[in-house]
Model the fold of this input.
Amino acid sequence: MQTRDSDAGDLLRLVEGAFAGERDPWANAANAAALVFESLPNLTWAGFYFLRGGDLVVGPFQGRVACVRIALGAGVCGTAAAKRETLIVPDVHAFQGHIACDAASNAEIVVPLMSGSKLIGVLDLDSPTVGRFTVDDATLLEALGEKIVAACDWRLAGIDGF
Ligand code: SME
Done:
């Protein structure tokens, strides 16, 4: 499913509006997760994992109960984080090591959040539809990731290296 340019612009504007000068990472991540979940069609989960104590630990999200702790290199989230690159997985059942949190999820996209060379965590979206996520979605979510990285004071969040 394609995201139209206008929808993408709307989401980025809504996220900026929700941050509105607020620097708290948990507050901004919570509102960002809610806006992504409301704005993009056909999702089962949208949210964050943050690097805390050497693992990715679940942060603010919308959707069903999720796995709490993911090692770097494990699953789609840990692989994207370890490689520091966005992963679009059309069919999670074909991804070796995929961590199944919700049986209804069939496709996933994970965008690492970086502050310079420091890994902060990942933005993770799941969908019930195989092939749901496109390169346009990756571009949009990377832009959103850059906005949240710039908007927050990460020293307030207990994230490794800050
Ligand atoms: N499927 C992910 C785990 C996180 S949930 O999808 C919310 C993974 O393989 O890393």
Q: What stands out?
A: The first strand starts at residue 45 and ends at 52. The helical segments are 5-19, 25-39, 75-83, 135-151. The beta strands are 45-52, 55-63, 69-71, 87-89, 107-115, 118-127. Residues 45, 66-67, 70, 75-78, 98-99, 101, 105, 108, 124, 126 surround methionine sulfoxide (CB under 6 Å).
